[in-house]
Design goal:
There is one protein chain. By secondary structure, this protein is an alpha/beta fold. It is 44% helix and 18% strand. The chain has one domain (7-143): Rossmann fold. Helix 6 links the parallel strand 3 (111-116) and strand 4 (136-143). It is globular, with a radius of gyration of 15 Å.
């Protein structure tokens, strides 16, 4: 996929992925509607190939989106205790279970990446310090107001 005027951002995302061997990374893609955030994220995922195990989660396009919407999407994929507790577990437990699930190796030895949205960002900030010594990266995409 050819991206116009996004080579620097794409290079940065690939560098951050490569650096996850030294510790986790968080990348935030932000911009107005139509700025190309999702296109950039998709190009990054396609370019990462087998180096990354990507988990996509999205906020609901509703006036009142469900709480932790992106994590519900991800819990369905990861399964286990995270999927079992996402609906009724305390948030702190749910995020601990997310970290535990991300610590389990995927079926192949690929790094895990998580994509989420703005409403999820306050909880992702809390995960940032937990990623410092693990080979994970989080890419957050949100629309600027």
């Amino acid at each position: 996929m050819d991206l116009l005027e996004r080579a620097d951002e794409l290079t940065t995302l690939h560098r951050l992925l490569a650096e996850t061997t030294a510790g986790g990374r968080v990348a935030v893609l932000s911009g107005e509607a139509g700025a190309g955030k999702s296109t950039l994220a998709t190009a990054f995922v396609e370019g990462a190939g087998p180096r990354a195990h990507v988990l996509w989660g999205a906020c609901d396009p509703l006036l009142t989106p469900r709480a932790l919407g992106p994590l519900h999407d991800i819990a369905r994929v990861l399964g286990g205790r995270l999927r079992d507790r996402i609906g009724d577990g305390p948030r702190s437990e749910v995020f601990d279970l997310l970290l535990e699930a991300l610590d389990r190796p995927p079926q192949s030895a690929r790094r895990r990446s998580l994509r989420a949205c703005r409403r999820f960002s306050d909880r992702l900030r809390g995960l940032g310090s937990s990623l410092a010594h693990s080979p994970k990266s989080i890419s957050q995409i949100h629309r600027s107001p």
